[in-house]
Amino acid sequence: MEAVGVLMMCPMNKYLEQELDKRFRLLRYWTQTKQTDFVAQHAHSIRAVVVNPAAVVTAELIDALPKLEIVSTFSVGLDKIDLAKCREKGIRVTNTPDVLTDDVADLAIGLMLAVLRRICECDRYVRRGAWKNGAFKLASKFSGKRVGIIGLGRIGQAIAQRAEGFDCPISYYSRSKKANTNY
C-alpha cells in the first residue's frame, strides 16, 4: 500500500516537518520548480494539505487532488482556503482557533500604549541624547480613552477585557450583536 501523501505548501516549523516526515510521505511543494507537474505526479497519494498563512489553497489545487480528505492550516484564519470548493468535495478543513488570541490582544494593547505614550519616539529622543537639551513633549494617557473595536470575536473580546482594566469605555462594530457584553 502506498504511503499517505501530505502536501506541505510552505516551510513551517522544523519540528512539525520532522514529525510529519516520520508518519507520512511529506511532499514539500515550495521546494519544487515545476509545482504543477509535481502535484500531478503525486496527486493520487496526497490525502492532506498542510498550510500556514503564507500559502493559498485554490479550487484548482483541490481539483487536482482526487484523494484529498483534509486541509489543515496552522492559523486562525481560513481566508486563503477555497472553503466553497472544500465543502463541495466533502473535504474537512481545520485551523488553530484561539492559539494566538492572548498574544494578539496583548500586542494590540501594547501598541495603543506605545502610540499614546509615544514610547518609540521617546526612546529615540533619549538614545540620541536630546534629553540634555530639554524635556520631552508630553504624551497622552491611555486610561479612560474610548476604545473602538472592529469585530468582537475572540481577539476583539480579549482586547476589550484588557482595555476595561484601564477604565476604557468600549465601542464595537461586528456583523452581529454580541450577547453577554456591556458594550
From TrEMBL:
Limits of the D-isomer specific 2-hydroxyacid dehydrogenase catalytic domain: 11-146
GO molecular function: glyoxylate reductase (NADPH) activity; hydroxypyruvate reductase [NAD(P)H] activity; NAD binding
Record key words, sorted: NAD, Oxidoreductase
GO CC terms: cytosol
One Pfam family recorded for the sequence: 2-Hacid_dh
Key word Oxidoreductase present: yes
InterPro entries: D-isomer_2-hydroxyacid_DH, D-isomer_2_OHA_DH_cat_dom, D-isomer_DH_CS1, NAD(P)-bd_dom_sf
Protein name in UniProt: Glyoxylate/hydroxypyruvate reductase A HPR2
